[in-house]
Amino acid sequence: MSTPRERPGREVERRRVRWSRAWRIIASRYPPIDLFERVSDDPAVWDVLIELEQLTNPRLRDEAGEIRLVPVERRVAGTNASWVMAPFTHVNRRGSRFSDGTFGVYYAAESLDTAIAETAYHFGLFAADSGDPLRREDMRVLVGTLDWRFDDVARLAPAIRSELLDTASYAKSQPFAVRRREAGSDGLVYPSVRRAGGQCIAAFWPDTVGIPVQERHLQFEWNGQKVSRYFDFSVGAWTPLP
């Protein structure tokens, strides 16, 4: 991983976040994207190579996403790099807590329990919005390392911090994130909203996080109202969620 750089926009206090394990959970229903491992180990030539390959393989457009959203100097390459690149090239246009839908964010947590609590909650929102019946969803657990300086939400004034970590609304957190990214921030570290005592990061660029490996598989059970429990395939057991 490259060394954290001094960047502008320091009016929000930053903290160096060092996690030996940074946990991220994604859905397993789609095959792993390996485009950025296949085309070249030089991110500077990806745009041209992807464009050429799309001439004979139109489906590649879906796999590549919007590569131009990530400047060459902020791209990452190597085994499993696509798991880091994907959130930035396949942007969630509905937005999230720290994105208004115009840019991607890589979310991760300091523990598996925190990652499960956060992901289960948001998967439940998605299932509810879709009107899903009772069902189960396989999830892929990724784990990497983290060593970077991020804006520290916990050190903001209590009133501002409360607005950014609102349990139901992103009305304040999204524009805040846009401003911080435009000011040169590499991302945010913040208290988990879904698990007391947990910590999360919202990284604005791929080169700020370590490339992860697959750690295990889980299965979320949606009971029609929430994700009520999950199955851990590594231990062969169900765990209830509050």
What is the number of strand segments?
Answer: 8
**Computed structural class:** alpha+beta
| Tally of separate helices | 7
Overall body shape:
globular
Please provide the ordered H/E string of secondary-structure elements.
EHHHHEHEHHEEEEE
Largest sheet: 8 strands, mixed
User: Percent of residues in beta strands?
Assistant: 25-35%
Instruction: Please compute the radius of gyration using only Cα atoms.
Output: 18 Å
> In which range does the helix fraction lie?
25-40%
Low-confidence stretches: 1-9, 52-62
Cα-to-Cα separation, first versus last residue: 37 Å
Number of domains: 1
Average pLDDT across residues? Answer: 87
Task: Quickly describe the structure.
The protein is α+β, with helices and mostly antiparallel strands. The protein is 26% helix and 27% strand. A hairpin with a 4-residue loop joins β7 and β8.
Question: Can you walk me through this structure?
Answer:
- It is built from seven helices and eight strands.
- β4 and β5 form a beta hairpin.
- Residues 1-9 and 52-62 have low confidence and may be disordered.
- It is an alpha+beta fold.
- The N and C termini lie far apart (37 Å).
- Strands 1, 2, 3, 4, 5, 6, 7 and 8 form an eight-stranded mixed beta sheet that branches.
- The chain has one domain.
- It has helices at 35-38, 46-54, 60-64, 81-89, 112-130, 158-164, 173-182; strands spanning 14-27, 106-109, 135-152, 187-191, 199-203, 213-222, 227-232, 237-240.
- The protein is globular and about 45 Å long.
